[in-house]
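Hey,
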Amino acid sequence: MFATRTIKTSITVLALALLVSCGKKEESKAPTSAPSAPVAQPAPPPVAPAPPVAAPAAGGPVLARSDGEKAGMSVEVTELKRGSGGTVTLKFTMVNNTKERAGFSYNYGDGALSTIDFNTVGGTHLIDAVNKKKYLVVRDSEKKCVCSLVKSDIPVGERMNLWAKFPAPPEDVKVIAVMIPHFAPMDDVPISP
């Protein structure tokens, strides 16, 4: 029994010696000098701010903006572009931030053609200040405007995309005033080729 106890003790001592020895080997691998200061990581690149919101659904930037005679109504010109056949196309968005639906009826038509212009933007026109010329909406053989025909009101908090075609001013005219009934004039709107 004494021999068994001696063997067990010897094995225990040997195991402890191995553990201590392994621990010392691990410690000897550690650097003997003082730890160096942590290396500074480069800061992540700054995040660029989001670009300004363009007119939704119209797809382009806002070229001009105007408030309406009625508080809460506004209009945004999103495109004024030359096309084939000597025309320019105006694209714009009406925004209704009033407390009630915005109807069209006779509001935006040409007063002289009110029955034909019902629910249209036929009263919209362009003014070339340099050449002192007014450009009215293009009309077909029945005097109907070549422009948006609106089928519904603009709900509260909503936007509606609209358009109208005009005879093109001379090629040297690069900016023009846009006049939409019941909105302040928008001067110097650029015409894109």
